[in-house]
Model the fold of this input.
Amino acid sequence: MSAQTNARTGNAVGTHARDGRTDSATEAFVAHRNLLFTVAYEMLGSAADAEDVLQETWLCWVGVGPDTVRNQRAYLVRTATRQALSRLRTLRRGKGSYVGPWLPEPPLTAPDVTGDVELADSVSMAMLLVLETLAPTERAVFVLHEVFDLPYDEIAEAVDETPVAVRRIAHRARTHVAARRPREVVSPAEAQGTLEAFRQAIETGAPRRLLAPDVVLLTDGGGAVQATLTPVVGADRVAAALTGTGARVSVRPTQVNGCPALSLHVDGNLDTVLAVRATDGLVTALYAVRNPEQPPHLDQRTPANGRATGGTDPEEADG
Done:
């Protein structure tokens, strides 16, 4: 983590990295930054909010003094989780007045996330929408245990619950997610092939042939730009929505949340990021982010790897 990889947190590090104590704090924070970002992003569905959580976690980390902490990773995860939970509860209150569908802000993730199928699935647009249906504490417990395999006692400290309560919450969240998560499994090669064919179909004005009959399009414009306020269902209606602008659209392949995606450019300007879900060579769901207040991070390569496994001894300092 540095000014090159993240300006806000990097500047904070640079301000304090003038003595040996803070240099060691920086080294420890850098070692766990990818993990902390991914935990925060999976809890919040927003790269900008996840970066804010990292900034807040860094400030707490510098303030406590890393030399007083025996288990630095556990302390940092616990601090980031608490910061993310607080922010998530605030965001949930604001989403009650949100205009139209809300979609996660898709950061551009490094290609190596696709090497971890479980991790890539956990940050997919479809999965993040499922996580949105969980209560904040359920979401935190699910992410920390099911995705990162943290032990229940460590999670309990992060969410201020007992290990017994965390086990119950984990079971409830796991059941909830299992009933709602997409069940189709598509290889990366198949997904890439379908996406490329779909890209060409959009550019030639004939996307209909690659749309499943019950395809669903969700569009997030945040009330600031034109977007459908309800899901568009059916191949004919979705095809009409994709080709009805009349503007000259160029479509470029990209990668968001560990999965192949498309960026749509109108007159050379980024207009929409389109995450695609496909099975059996047909597109079954489209997630279009057009919200100008939620700009896709297509100019960054934020690694989403950083899986943590196994338990460790409790730390001496409190978060």
